[in-house]
Amino acid sequence: MFVNEAELQQLVHEQPELILSGIPEINPVYCSDTPKILSLGREIPLRSGPIDNLYVDTNGIITLVECKTYSNSGIKRSVYSQAINYASDLQNMLIHYSGTEFIEQFYSIITEGNFVTYPQFDSMVAQLSQDCILEGKNKKDWKQQFLQRLEFNIKNGVFRIVILCAPSKTNLFSYAAVRNLMQLMTFSESGNSKYDLILMDLRGEAGAYQAQMIWRRYCPLPQIPLIANSLRAVERGIEAMRKRFSMLPSPAQATLKRFQDSLREAGIDVVENSIGYSLRDADTRKSMFISVETDQDTWFVRRHQIRNDDSLFANMGSDDVKITVTAVKAWAAGATRDALERVAERYKVFGKPSEINGVRGVMYEIWIYTSSETDIPALIHLLKSRLRYQTVALSPQPVLELATQ
Questions:
Q1: Residues 189/199, Cβ–Cβ less than 8 Å
Q2: What InterPro entries does the entry give (predicted)?
Q3: pLDDT tens digits for 36-82?
Q4: Is 299 within 8 Å of 313 (Cβ atoms)?
């Protein structure tokens, strides 16, 4: 339940993925190639009033979100015209601008809002360019296509419009109001409209939020050609990945099968991608930042994006984790190899410089190579207890130095 609509706005401003999770074809849990979506800010002033939340994605699609709790009487009918008005406002405010002037005017509108995420247009584009869907692609070409599509989409009314409803302390769900709103939208909406209109419910329990679609007037939104080609490349990549795994020796395939069966029993989902398999918590649907990949005649588990300032590596070598793996070397950037001698007997460790909130440190990857003698239950235990939950704090002192203390 939400105390007020400002609380709901702030939640989806900080966690844009909650909006995506309510739309099946772009839910990142099920679609690893979902384009990156960025929150541009809250309460962006338009002619008919401030839009609650505004987002943009890698395809240059603008998403407008109007937040309402079920205690708000506007859900019955006014929220519909309100949301459509905002899209029309943005279109009309920019219709007479082109090229550089369009971008300047667009961002002058954004920066007049509250809680602006990216004060400069270039910083927003730079953040979008980090989308993994653009990995290995010519980002200069993408930027040019993005600018063209952003202008085209807004001028032609190509939007994603979300009416986001949530329970309040006085009203968990307003059946009559929602039914009236659905009937109104069904009667009014035209198949010729170029926007995707979604009525969505968002609620949480114990800090875990879930969005669900209530009603939708679907309109397919265009993709930038470079990204569309990239998605087709992902499909081909998954086919190639399956072929690589099928060529593993029989003992390795048998061990992998036991590992996959054990993952399901442990409440861990396996999702295919072009590299291998990514692991996700079955309950929370969140990534564990763990993948399963192949290397010549074996397979290995890779835990990446580790930022930890405790004795992680020393703990991994403790007696309660018994696992037999292929002996490999270990190293890390900016640290002595001697610091990893104990861990190197079992694990392969990479480190690369990283920075969070201005604090320099090292972000690590741990590679666990397997063999026919690998203790699968111990490996599952390691993934869930040692590598699943990590602190995000960084200290100026490298992690590897702490591990030797």
A1: no
A2: tRNA_endonuc-like_dom_sf
A3: 889 999 999 999 999 999 999 999 999 999 999 999 999 998 999 99
A4: no
Shortest CA distance to 399 belongs to which of 354, 345, 348, 346? Answer: 354
Q: Strand pairing partners for 183?
A: none
- Structural contact between residues 156 and 92, judged by C-beta atoms closer than 8 angstroms: no
Do 64 and 43 contact (CB within 8 A), yes or no?
no
Residue 51 near residue 86, CB atoms below 8 Å: yes
Residue 200: partners with Cβ closer than 8 Å, 6 or more residues away: 19, 22, 162, 163, 164, 165, 211, 212, 213, 214
Q: Where are the domains of the chain?
A: 5-227, 248-403
Instruction: Work out the end-to-end distance of the chain between its first and last CA atoms, rounded to an integer number of angstroms.
Output: 46
C-beta atoms surrounding 144 within 10 Å: 13
Q: Which residues contact 317 (CB under 8 A, 6 or more apart)?
A: 342, 343, 345, 346
Q: Three-class SS of residue 281?
A: strand
Token pair in block for residue 256: 């992998």
Cα-trace Rg, the chain: 24
pLDDT tens readout for residues 79-126 = 999 999 999 999 999 999 999 999 999 999 999 887 888 888 999 999
Backbone phi, psi, residue 13, to 5°: -65, -40
- Kindly state the tokens that stand for 356: 């969070």
Whether 60 and 74 have beta carbons less than 8 Å apart is answered as: no
Concatenated DSSP letters of 306-322: E---S-HHHHHTSTT--
Closest Cα partner for 165 from 78, 68, 22? 68
**Domain 248-403 carries which CATH code?**
3.30.1460
Task: Give the residues across from 271 on adjacent strands.
Answer: 278
Q: Which residues of the chain carry a pLDDT beneath 70? A: 32, 206-207, 230-234, 305-365, 386-405
Quote the tokens at residue 317: 């070598």
